[in-house]
Amino acid sequence: MKADGQFSLTRRRALAWGGAVAALPLSRPAAAVPRGDLLFRVIRKGSPIGWLQTIFAQTVDGLTVRTKLDVEIYVAFVRVYRYHHLGEEVWQGDRLLSLKSETDNDGEQYRVQTTPVAGGLRVEGPRGAVTTPASTMTTNSSWNPALVQQQMVIDCERGRYVPLAAQPLGEKTLGVMGQQRTASLFRIRLPYAVGEIWYAGGEWVHGVFTTKGETLTYQRER
Asked: Is residue 2 part of a domain?
């Protein structure tokens, strides 16, 4: 981070998401509708800078999961950085039927979409295309604790197929929406981010992620 007035997160990745549960018992399959939509406040250096929202809908095609992340940074009342991401996934059981996303990273535009192919999905992003198994989860799938049983995931911002590593750190107690919850804590690592993610009762309840020197906290609000 540079001195105030020169914000070094510009053109960097605010979308650190989260997800790592190598030893957490699964309470539901990938296509089961969670208990409700999720809302996280995004915090940087003790100050709120945006929101992460995940909305679930059961349809005839399967479970539709919509993810929206909005982050804005202001210095002396002047906006110096903005990140906006919209993603939509359709799941049927543990199969990813489709993914599409749009990202505005402070003016840099990225789009990702998938096409079904034999044995999996063709993922097209700004850096080209890659074919992944249909059971592959994505960087927007933190809502599902099965995520970190994956060794590879689809990067929803740029369409890459990237490795994920998870390390269980035991159980901890933390405040979640005004209540003390016992949660399973995991350290996760991606090529572009490291952090911690917390699950309580099979629900994602907290996250702290660092990418290129910037640390963002995801505080559960709903």
From this structure: no
Tokens of 219: 């505080």
- Residue from 125, 142, 130 nearest 17 by CA: 142
Percentage of the chain modeled with pLDDT above 90: 77
* Range of the structural domain that residue 53 is part of: 38-220
Alpha carbon distance 218, 51 (integer Å): 8
Q: In sequence order, what E strands does the chain have? A: 38-44, 47-59, 62-75, 78-92, 95-105, 108-117, 120-125, 128-133, 137-138, 152-154, 161-163, 165-176, 179-190, 193-200, 203-211, 214-220
Lookup result for tokens 């990067």: 155
Q: How far apart are CA 27 and CA 132, in angstroms?
A: 25
Q: Taking 80 as the threshold, does the pLDDT of residue 68 lie above it? A: yes
Dump pLDDT digits (tens) for 101-111.
Answer: 999 999 999 99
Stated pTM of the model: 0.86
83 occurs within a structural domain: yes
In a domain, 6, yes or no: no
144 to 73, 118, 153: CA distances (angstroms): 29, 26, 13
Considering the domain boundaries, does residue 25 fall inside one? Answer: no
Q: Quote the number of domains for the chain.
A: 1
